[in-house]
């Protein structure tokens, strides 16, 4: 093989040097991309952690209620017969002309009266008469002055506790027969926050 001329040697070295520079630039680009990717992952992870931390602190709302089909808003006379309601307790349908007073009732009120309250955006909290006194006290504490909330005993409940709003219903048996735990109290509170004053006549008292 013939020896390369000085000019050819120069050109060859120039090409080799250029190839090294291109390779080094490519390596630098790859390193830069990897560093940026790591920074992005770190930022995303930090934001995700902060969001998760905030959710744990503030308490994300979880609604357990089921939606019930609307049965209308027909008024009936006290004691008048009517078709069967589609939930227990009912959340809409045939009801009396006069609604119940807001607050805590120690005696059971007619469903037909309380449906009128639901129409006005009330929350109706009911419990079976066999509920422990502490449970009853905890439920009654959800009522505050002026709030559209009624708390009452109701023997027809198929679960110990039922929370009703217009077309929405949640009912459950507490994990303990003695009292409601924090999660169960939050469950009721979240229902109230979401559905209070959401009936067809929210401006009614």
Structure explained in plain terms:
With 205 residues, this protein is an alpha/beta fold. The chain folds into two domains: 1-60; 66-195, no CATH class. The protein is 41% helix and 14% strand. The protein contains four helices and eight strands, in the order H-E-E-E-E-H-E-H-E-E-E-H. It has helices at residues 6-58, 111-119, 133-140, 182-195, and strands spanning 66-67, 75-76, 95-96, 103-104, 123-127, 149-153, 161-165, 168-172. The strands form two sheets. The protein has a six-stranded mixed β-sheet. Strands 2-3 form a two-stranded parallel sheet. The radius of gyration is 34 Å and the shape is rod-shaped. Mean pLDDT is 87; it is low at 47-58.
Outline the secondary-structure elements.
Elements: H1 6-58, E1 66-67, E2 75-76, E3 95-96, E4 103-104, H2 111-119, E5 123-127, H3 133-140, E6 149-153, E7 161-165, E8 168-172, H4 182-195
Short précis:
The chain is of the alpha/beta class and 205 residues long.
* H/E series: HEEEEHEHEEEH
From the N-terminal CA to the C-terminal CA, the straight-line distance is 106 Å
| SS field, number of helical segments | 4
Q: Average pLDDT across residues?
A: 87
Structural class: alpha/beta
Q: What is the total domain count? A: 2
Defining key terms:
205 residues, alpha/beta, 2 domains, six-stranded mixed β-sheet, two-stranded parallel ribbon, 4 helices, 41% helix, rod-shaped
